[in-house]
Design brief:
The radius of gyration is 18 Å and the shape is globular. With 320 residues, it is α/β, with parallel strands linked by helices. The N and C termini lie far apart (56 Å). It has a single domain, classed as Alpha/Beta hydrolase fold, catalytic domain (Rossmann fold, 3-Layer(aba) Sandwich), CATH 3.40.50. The chain is built from ten helices and eight strands. An eight-stranded mixed beta sheet has the order 1-2-4-3-5-6-7-8, with helices on both faces.
């Protein structure tokens, strides 16, 4: 067997039988591939109008990497500096695997075309020693840090949104709730094929049964995610926005739901709960699209339309 490199995507493992050592090895190889040039044919090319860079952030008790996207100046092609850019704090999907680099296509387009400062959180991936609470804290702490140091980052703290995909949608939804509780006013939240139910009922939604093994093997992956994310005896409701006691007063939401997705009903039910609580919400379904389609413009024809919708939604929400 040839050695896996960044140019070769590792084969999908048996998520229900893999050991922790196999998980660590798989996600290292998979993330190297997602960050490589070889993945561009599927994940899309970054917008040439945006500068992309990694940056280290010092947070309470840890250092964390973030991937930063800035619009380039039309005059000299340098990254925009100064203050006043809208801020979008983004969280990638994957849960126990994934990297901010896999979302360069959409985040660079948002940075260039809104224009905006986009900060994507390279959160701690879930593992036996790193539960969901770590990723949730990373998302929230990055949001709070950048807003609190907005002038240093060149951002306008009064024009801030959160944006997350899949597991990142869960982290972003939790951040939106914490922002309300902390008095941090968000202009918008964008949740794309989000996980919002981490309780034992997360598998009971009709879409889960319909798309458990096709077009992707979603159910084994989600079972592993829940096993890693919620320690035995932990209260999964604390990390399930679908069952939050109060969803009123949250930032206006855009829910993007691909229909051929085991998690489609998570997004639909969360939109219903937000609407019932009086929070403004737009639910858009993309017929025939599969999970994570926004990160797959090379193979998912509706990714461009979803990106355009997100751009338009945020442009309106973050207007001065």
């Amino acid at each position: 067997m040839s050695e896996t490199t960044a140019e070769t995507r590792p084969p999908e493992p048996d998520f229900e039988a893999m050991t922790i050592e196999e998980l660590v090895g798989y996600r290292a190889a998979e993330n190297a591939w997602r960050a490589s040039g070889a993945a561009r044919a599927i994940l899309g090319d970054p917008d040439p109008g945006a500068a992309i860079d990694w940056r280290e952030m010092t947070l309470p008790g840890r250092d964390l990497a973030v991937r930063v996207y800035r619009p380039l100046s039309a005059d000299d092609g340098e990254a925009a500096t100064g203050t006043g850019l809208p801020l979008v704090v983004h969280v990638h999907g994957g849960g126990f695997v994934g990297t901010a680099a896999q979302c360069d296509w959409t985040n660079s387009h948002l940075a260039a075309r809104l224009p905006a400062l986009v900060v994507s959180v390279e959160h701690r991936l879930v593992a036996p020693d790193s539960p969901l609470s770590n990723a949730a804290d990373d998302g929230w702490d990055v949001l709070r840090y950048v807003v609190g140091h907005a002038a240093r980052w060149g951002a306008d703290p009064a024009r801030t949104a959160v944006f997350g995909e899949s597991f990142g949608g869960l982290v972003s939804a939790l951040a939106a709730v914490r922002a309300r509780e902390d008095g941090l006013r968000l202009r918008a939240q964008v949740l794309v094929n989000p996980v919002v139910d981490m309780t034992e009922t997360m598998y009971d939604h009709p879409s889960m049964a319909e798309y458990a093994y096709s077009p992707t093997r979603a159910l084994p992956l989600l079972r592993l995610l829940r096993r890693l994310a919620v320690p035995r005896g932990g209260d999964a409701r604390a990390f399930s926005p679908l069952y939050a006691d109060d969803l009123s007063g949250l930032a206006p939401a855009l829910l993007v739901v691909p229909t051929q997705d085991a998690l489609a009903d998570h997004g639909r039910r969360y939109a219903e709960r937000l609407r019932a609580a009086g929070t403004s919400v737009r639910l858009t379904e993309y017929p025939g699209a599969r999970h994570a389609f926004l990160t797959l413009p090379g193979v998912e024809p509706q990714a461009a339309a979803a990106q355009a919708e997100i751009l338009a939604f945020l442009r309106t929400a973050l207007a001065g």
